[in-house]
Amino acid sequence: MAETGRIRVAKDKAELVKGLTSSDGGTGPFNTFADVIVFAAALGAKHKKRVALGEISKREPSPIPQEQFIVRGYNTVINLITIAEIKDIKVLSLQEGNNNEKRNYIFEEYANGGLEILQSEIRGAVDYSERILLMLSSERFQDNSEEEDFDLSKFLL
């Protein structure tokens, strides 16, 4: 299970996470590691891609304190992803001691899945911001173009 109070990053995605941030002179589209992880988790959840972490990054980025997510209001995203996965609101209960670990674990796996998607989408790109913007734009127009066929079966008895 997840280390209590910290969000971990898979070692094989550490360079990607660093490359996506603008800290330390980087040119990535995100300000912090927490921003990258939340975006990746949302992307992973949208595509239902949950991937185990494997080896954990010990250095940049080391496990990120949960407070960084809470301060930015990202704990809501963590909770929503967890509820959508487990389909039980009781996972938000503070009465059971391991619920926080369970939420973090699910969130980490969706973030890892989202990072895999990002990794393949931005492969070979010089400007990550532009590639991510194109990816989001494509998703937006793809959703709008899919129209549901009119289903006549609901009129049958």
Any overview of this molecule?
With 157 residues, this protein is mainly alpha-helical. The chain has one domain (6-128). Helix content is 50%, strand content 3%. It is built from 6 helices and 2 strands. Strands 1-2 form a two-stranded antiparallel sheet. Helix 2 (33-46) crosses helix 5 (99-121) and helix 4 (75-86) packs across helix 5. The longest helix has 23 residues, at 99-121. The radius of gyration is 18 Å and the shape is globular. InterPro entries: DNA_S_mod_dnd_assoc_4. It comes from Nostoc cf. commune SO-36. This is Dnd system-associated protein 4.
Short summary of the structure?
This is Dnd system-associated protein 4. The protein is mostly helical.
Largest sheet: 2 strands, antiparallel
Strand count = 2
Q: What percent of the residues sit in helical stretches (DSSP H or I)?
A: 40-55%
Question: Helical element count?
Answer: 6
Proportion of β residues?
under 5%
Question: What sequence of helices (H) and strands (E) makes up the elements?
Answer: EHHEHHHH
Tell me the count of domains.
1
Q: pLDDT under 50 segments (min length 5)? A: none
Largest sheet: spatial strand order = 1-2
- Structural classification: mainly alpha
The separation of the N and C termini measures: 50 Å
Radius of gyration: 18 Å
Average pLDDT reading: 85
Identify the overall geometry.
globular
InterPro entries: DNA_S_mod_dnd_assoc_4 (IPR023983)
Protein name: Dnd system-associated protein 4
Organism: Nostoc cf. commune SO-36
Q: Which secondary structure elements does this structure contain, and how are they paired or packed?
A:
Layout: E1 6-7, H1 14-19, H2 33-46, E2 64-65, H3 66-71, H4 75-86, H5 99-121, H6 128-145
Antiparallel strand pairs: 1-2
Helix pairs in contact: 2-5, 4-5
